[in-house]
Amino acid sequence: MKKNLIYLVFLIFALACSSLYAANYTNYKTTFTCSAILGTIESPVINHSAPQSIFGLNIPLKLQGVVIAPYIIPKVFLYYKINNNVWNKVTMTVEDIGNKTYAINGDIGGENITSAGTLYYYIEALDPVSNLTAYWQGKNINNPQAVPIIVNTSVYVDYEGGTVSINGLNNMPIVQLIFPRGALTMGTTIEINQKRVEQAPTYQDRKAAFVYEFLPSGLAFSKPVELKIMYNDVNNDGKEDSLPSGFNDVKNLRVYYLNGADWDLIGGLVDLNAKTVATSLKHFSTYGLFYTILNRAAYMPKYRIITPNGDGFNDVIKFINLDNVNTEIKIFDVNGRKVRSISQRPYEWDGKDGSGRVVESGLYIYQFKVAINGKDEYINGTLAVAK
Known about the structure:
The protein is elongated. It has 1 helix and 31 strands. Helices cover 4% and strands 47% of the residues. Strands 5, 7, 8, 11, 12 and 13 form a 6-stranded mixed sheet that branches. A 6-stranded antiparallel sheet has the order 14-17-18-24-20-21, with no helix packed on it. The protein has a 5-stranded antiparallel sheet with strand order 15-16-19-23-22, with no helix packed on it. The relative contact order is 0.09. A hairpin with a 2-residue loop joins strand 20 (253-259) and strand 21 (262-267). The longest helix has 15 residues, at 2-16. By secondary structure, the protein is mainly beta.
């Protein structure tokens, strides 16, 4: 009660001095001058570091900072727009960290960032007691902060290899390419372009969460290159934020490559802690991250004929959608004799038996066990070897 009475008296004196105030937004604060009665009344001060640029579409942004508020917990608002769209208002979270200082956070949903261009924004803090308002670095609706939204970049990679990491805000890796030594026969400048998912082909009438084009298209690698794509799960509920409900379980996310007008599955190891899906690339193309319906058909190899002659074509049969599964694939001949067991990733058969010899031409049977809808089921079918 006593504290509220002090605030009331404070406001009455402040109003009595209202004809004497001077506003100076460019110096980060507004000051009332009424020294005969109260002295100097200060507005909140906002400290925030603006990003130099933003890489990536459909990726949520978190803008952070601190506010020094002399009198009471401030109200802080983030105003933003993308390109020439309408202004949006976000109430920033305010956390008291002591000494009249408050940490602030404001989120811009990834669904609002759908095209390259410019993010415009400004931050406003209001002191509810003095009714004074401050703007970060004098930025306001007529003079907002401008940050470019970038969807393409180029990087030089040499024979020694290395990791190419495209980072978003707070250095979060959005896309990573890990080149082993010798994957490239010579130094090459590569390009990474993010595509708008609305403009990319769908897969089984479902849109991708993310689509990236890697150039030079068709560039082949002497050794597999690892690709990691980050997915969105801001509230950690195990759902991909940009995909529709029922088709967004992150455990079902897989990487596909665009083969002409169709998407072909290549795999995807889901890391729930890093929020990434990883796979191995043999060449550059356009790659998309899709939700995959994991039924029996999803585990059957798409190509079932192998020609193990070492020419680089159809030398292996890849068992798909097993990146996140621990199982054992057994290969039998038509007489029921087991010729090979495969119990670790990558789940591929190169046409050889357990002794490393190429098997005879003919039909073979595969069998392995996976959990579908919480129930263990055996997946089996036939393969053909043609030498």
